[in-house]
Structure formats: structure tokens, C-alpha cells
């Protein structure tokens, strides 16, 4: 990333715990919290106790409110873990989560989506696909996520890859060329990093930021192509964001 990430937090949300910041703080740079000269970013790390080493990273608790926090990565980042994620993290920690050779081959044929030019997504190797689970559930908007950290992120609807019975191409997944193009898009305005594409029927669309899927009954999504047209501010095409309902199947990254 072009700038070091210092912290992340919920907007307009007060902390439930003044000691650890739970309720407001989502995560913070562990090393920077110890060395920062700005009091806004410096933290008393002695509040985090009862450390429990996991397969990757370490789980802590706040000594004041008993909230759970997860330290991992390089540079090390401390992230809040919501109570409803603890059971999934525990199952993830029980044993390695590995894909079989057939699953690896299918994902390799589909191709993983690169992180964006600012480094967002670099902690994952993500491949869009469709999945049927061992419990008989079917998901056409699925991403297999190879990673070296526990699935603590409450904003991602996660399963373990050990729940996978079958992986196949998704009818809604963009082809690798388009996905790669969206990963290379520059942010030209706050929150806007456009990639102009064309549907098979000739419709011009704009994808905002890095994207894996389009949900449309009108055309074959795999045939969407990067357009040679520039984005027209005066007459902008429809802008599409990522669809709702994407689920993630987490496996270990080798």
C-alpha cells in the first residue's frame, strides 16, 4: 500500500469499552500503537491479556470487558473479533483447512482475482466460483479464499473450505481479464475507481473497484469484455458495485 494503515473504525460509533475500544475500533497497527508520538494513535497494550496462540496469529481478551481481539499479519494488526465469530475461529483452528488436488485444479483454471493497486485484498488469494457443500447447500456467488489468518472478519459471510463438496465455475463470475482490469483501476474520485466494460449485447457498463461478479439474467456474464471507451462524466453508463450475498470459503494459503 502507498500509505501505512494505522487503524480502522466504525463511523460515528462510540466505544463500548474505553480500555480496548471495542464497539468503535475494528483494528489497529500493533507496532505503531507502541511507537506513535500522536496520543490519538498510541495505546496501552497491557489491556490485552490471556493470549492464546492459534495456527496463525494469537487470540487475546480485553482485561476490562473480555472482548476478543486477534493479532496477526506482517505488519502485525490487532483486530476485534465479534462474539458470533468465535465458534468459526475455533473450528478453523482445530486443524489445517486444505483443498484437494481436484479443487485446486478447478480454481487454477478459473484464475484468482489480483488485489487492487492500493494493496486491498493482498492478504487473500480469492477465486470466484460456485460451490455445493457437504450439507447440500448451493452457492453461485462463492469465493474460495486462501489466507494465513483466522476468519475473524464479521463483514465476510464465511464458511470453512472443509465444508466444500464440489467447486465449479459460477454463471455470474466475470472472466479473469475483466477481473484483473478492475483490480488495476485507479481511484479517480473518492470511492470511485471505474472500469468500463461491454456486455455481449453491446451495453456499456462501469464496474466500481475490484469486482468478481455481475448478476444479470440479460447476458452471459463470462462474455463481458473490457471496453476501449473512456469513462464519460457527461453521460455516464450505469455503475455496478459488487452484488449482495457473496459467501467465502476459507482455506489455508501455502
Plain-language structure description:
With 254 residues, the protein is of the alpha+beta class. It is globular. The model has no long low-confidence stretch (mean pLDDT 94). It has 4 helices and 15 strands. It has a 6-stranded antiparallel sheet with strand order 1-2-6-5-4-3. A 5-stranded mixed sheet has the order 9-15-8-7-10, with helices on both faces.
What attributes characterize this protein structure?
6-stranded antiparallel β-sheet, 254 residues, globular, alpha+beta, 15 strands, 5-stranded mixed β-sheet
Overall pLDDT score? 94
Oligomer: single chain
Order of helices and strands: EEHEEEEHHEEEEHEEEEE
Percentage beta strand: 25-35%
Which structural category fits the helices and strands? alpha+beta
What's the end-to-end separation, in Å? 23 Å
Strand order of the largest sheet: 1-2-6-5-4-3
What general outline do the C-alpha atoms trace?
globular
Amino acid at each position: 500500500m502507498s500509505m501505512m494503515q494505522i487503524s480502522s473504525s466504525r463511523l460515528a460509533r462510540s466505544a463500548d469499552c474505553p480500555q480496548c475500544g471495542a464497539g468503535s475500533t475494528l483494528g489497529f497497527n500493533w507496532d505503531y500503537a507502541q511507537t506513535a508520538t500522536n496520543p490519538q494513535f498510541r495505546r496501552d497494550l497491557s489491556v490485552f491479556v490471556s493470549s492464546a496462540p492459534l495456527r496463525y496469529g494469537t487470540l487475546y481478551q480485553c482485561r476490562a470487558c473480555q472482548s476478543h481481539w486477534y493479532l496477526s499479519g506482517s505488519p502485525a494488526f490487532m483486530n476485534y473479533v465479534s462474539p458470533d465469530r468465535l465458534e468459526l475461529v475455533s473450528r478453523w483452528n482445530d486443524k489445517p483447512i486444505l483443498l484437494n488436488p481436484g479443487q485446486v485444479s478447478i480454481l487454477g483454471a478459473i484464475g484468482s482475482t489480483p488485489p487492487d493497486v492500493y494493496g486491498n485484498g493482498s492478504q487473500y488469494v480469492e477465486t470466484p466460483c460456485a460451490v455445493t457443500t457437504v450439507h447440500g447447500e448451493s452457492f453461485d456467488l462463492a469465493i474460495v479464499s486462501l489466507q494465513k489468518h483466522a476468519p475473524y472478519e464479521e463483514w465476510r459471510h464465511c464458511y470453512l473450505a472443509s465444508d466444500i463438496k464440489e467447486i465449479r465455475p459460477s454463471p455470474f463470475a466475470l472472466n479473469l481479464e475483466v477481473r484483473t482490469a478492475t483490480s488495476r483501476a485507479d481511484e479517480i474520485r473518492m470511492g470511485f475507481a471505474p472500469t468500463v466494460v461491454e456486455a455481449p449485447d453491446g451495453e456499456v457498463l462501469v464496474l466500481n473497484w475490484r469486482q468478481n461478479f455481475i448478476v444479470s439474467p440479460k447476458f452471459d456474464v463470462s462474455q463481458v469484455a473490457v471496453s476501449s471507451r473512456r469513462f464519460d462524466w457527461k453521460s455516464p453508463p450505469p455503475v455496478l458495485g459488487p452484488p449482495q450475498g457473496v459467501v467465502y470459503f476459507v482455506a489455508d494459503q501455502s
